[in-house]
Amino acid sequence: MPSEKRNFITTTIYQVLLRVGWIFKTESVIIPAALDSIGGVGWMRGCLPMLNRIGQSFPTLLVWPLIKNAGRQRNWLCVTTTGMGILFCASSVIWLADLQATGTLAQALFLFIYALFFVAVGINQLSLSSLIGKLIRPDLRGRLMLAANTLGCLFSVAAAWFVLRDWLTTSEANFGAIFGTSGLLFILAGLSALLIKETPNTKPAEDRYRFRSILNDVRMTFVEDRHFRVLLVISGLFGLSMTLMPHYQSLGRSRLDLGFADLLPWLIIQNIGVAVFSVPVGAVADRLGNRAALRLVMSILIAAPILALFFSNWGVLGRTGFMGVYFLLGLMPVTMRVLANYSLEFTEQENHPRYLVTQSLAMAVPVILSSALIGLLIDRLGYDLVFGGVVGCMVIAWCLTFCLHEPRVFERQSEMDDKEKRSV
Question: Could you tell me what percentage of the chain is helix, strand and coil, using 3-state DSSP and rounding each to the nearest 5?
Answer without folding.
Answer: 85, 0, 15
